[in-house]
Amino acid sequence: MEDPEGGVKPQFDGASAAGRKDGKKSRRRKGKRGGQTRSAAHPASHELSGNAGQPARPMEDAAGHPARKRKRRRRGGHGASQEGLLQPQPMEQTGVAANAARDSGDSPSSRRNRRKHRGKRGLQGRPLTSAKPSHIQPQENRAEETARAAVPRELQNGAGRKGRPENHAHQGDRPAAEHALPEELYAALDLGTNNCRLLIAQPTRPGQFRVVDAFSRIVRLGEGLAASGRLSDEAMERAIEALRVCASKLKNREIRRMRLIATEACRQAVNGEEFLGRVVAETGLELEIIDRETEARLAVSGCSSLVGRETRSVVLFDIGGGSSEIAVIRIGDNRFSRLANHITHWTSLPVGVVTLSERHGGRDVTPELFEGMVREVEGMLGSFDCPEIEIVQTGDFHLIGTSGTVTTLAGVHLDLPRYDRRKVDGIWLSDDEVSAMQAKLLSWDFDSRAANPCIGPDRADLVLAGCAILEAIRRRWPSPRMRVADRGLREGLLTDMMADDGVWRRNRNRRGQRTK
Questions:
Q1: Which long-range contacts (CB under 8 A, 24 or more apart) does 368-374 make?
Q2: Which residues are CB-contacts of 426 (< 8 A; sequence separation ≥ 6)?
Q3: CA 134 to CA 170: how far, in whole Å?
């Protein structure tokens, strides 16, 4: 409100104390001296007003601007009070008003005060903690994002979500940390013909987990195995060096349960068991060689969240370094919690990207050489006794590929500046898009493939052999679309271990107890 003389009047409940004409004292002008008014406590205020019977008025300056001087004196704090000028104060510091609010317990003024300061306090009147700047990411979150870059993200975020997280939720982006069980960590290690991979994860919501740490390195353990039948010394050294890194990561964490597996290279090599004994002696890790059926079931378990509820049939394939697992899945009206229970037929082809490229050459691949690789794999599939898949409606059937071959095709299709599993895992590729990507890779020479950021020099001589295996599978089971999975055995191992231990059921019970 504006003062008629140009000043701003202090307001109390919509009225100014200076505007009262009846000579009554305002409760708000009482000081802390036994209920006396400020004018009574300070007689000088009447002298300043020029009228002892009227409320005190502010002094005028030489220019006749009372509000300016009053404003300046109000800012002066104690100085203005000592001169008897009327000075509005916060309710908490006004003596009688504060006492009245405390006596009444819930006076209108106290209610207004609470509304006024509600944004500065918590709901119960407690000060809010200062918010962290949004541009500063917590250290643990940065570590989690680094780990997620190497693992499936949809496993963390649930089925049917594209471009997920390694949550990995089942698996990825982002698993809610408040639902995690800090004391329960699980680890899965997969030593394959071409790669050594490790995941350490923590269960979160039912069917999901959060990746705590991850490791992956190309070791080419099966290099030269097809020709000699043995693991070479150089290959074993590369694998053991990678396993030392894995052992260090496992040693630094309290793991509730772990499962460490080896696949086709150790299955085929005559010195496979001898190599695993050396691994125990040099790293302390005890790996088990799993059979091909177990490998197929684990691949299905790791990719179960990518199979939608509307899907009736799926052919899931895992193109490895030394073998390729294929599982035919038929889902009826009642879907089991474990998708692997719906496998009706499966096979394991004794061929992978390493073995096929070594037999045919993977560096300089002509269309004729590529077709020869496809026909070799087709011959292996010809002995697979599997009934034809009936497709009633569009969407009933599709392919799921989980391997470096299909993730590479997806990365090239997306023209990524560098491989990003969050954009690849869960993506759909049409049949025409897959054919176009295979033709593009076949038209590139070795140097062009090596220069692509989604392929690199380590895979440049393997990717076309993988495409040949993929092409044979597509010819056997034609499908209008294929889903890409950047996940596999490790995720299947983690899912099975957590389900067997019932951690998701216990986690759900604990949350229910907390909410009661």
A1: 370/442, 370/464, 370/467, 370/468, 373/464, 373/465, 373/468, 373/469, 374/468, 374/471, 374/472, 374/475
A2: 153, 154, 161, 162, 163, 164, 306, 483, 484, 485
A3: 28
Q: How many other C-beta atoms lie within 10 A of the C-beta of residue 379?
A: 10
Backbone φ, ψ for residue 416 (5° rounding): -75, 140
Residue 374 to residues 161, 351, 357, 360, 488: CA-CA distances in angstroms?
Answer: 32, 12, 12, 11, 24
Consecutive 10-residue averages of pLDDT for the chain (516 residues): 42 41 47 46 40 44 49 47 40 41 51 54 37 38 39 36 36 43 82 95 88 94 92 96 97 94 95 96 96 93 86 93 94 80 93 93 94 96 88 82 93 94 94 95 96 94 96 95 93 92 72 47
Query: What's the CA gap between 414 and 423, in Å, rounded?
Result: 9
CA distance 128 to 130: 6
Task: Centre a 10 Å sphere on the Cβ of residue 283 and count the other Cβ atoms it contains.
Answer: 21
CA distance linking residue 72 with residue 67, whole number of Å: 8
Predicted structure pTM score? 0.64
With contact defined as beta carbons under 8 Å apart, do 166 and 152 qualify?
A: yes
Q: Are 150 and 216 in contact (CB under 8 A)?
A: yes
Q: What is the pLDDT of residue 171?
A: 46
Q: Quick check: 374 and 467 in contact, CB under 8 A?
A: no
Give me the helices (H) in 415-502, please: 421-424, 431-443, 446-451, 463-476, 489-501
- Decide if 486 contacts 214 (C-beta within 8 A): no
Q: What is the pLDDT of residue 304?
A: 86
Long-range contacts formed by 278-283: CB under 8 A, 24+ apart: 278/236, 278/240, 279/239, 279/240, 279/243, 282/240, 282/243, 282/244, 283/240, 283/243, 283/244, 283/246, 283/247
* CA atoms within 13 A of residue 424's CA, in its CB half-sphere: 31
Distance CA 284, CA 282 (A): 6
CA 254 to chain centre: 22
What are the chain's domains? 17-117 (no CATH), 144-291 (3.30.420.40), 293-492 (3.30.420.150)
Phi, psi of 280 (to 5 degrees): -60, -45
The Cα–Cα gap between 289 and 191 comes to 9
By CB neighbour count within 10 A (0-12 exposed, 13-18 middle, 19+ buried), where does 334 fall? Answer: exposed
- E strands, 340-393, are 343-349
- 3-class SS of residue 474: helix
Looking at residue 339, its pLDDT comes to 85
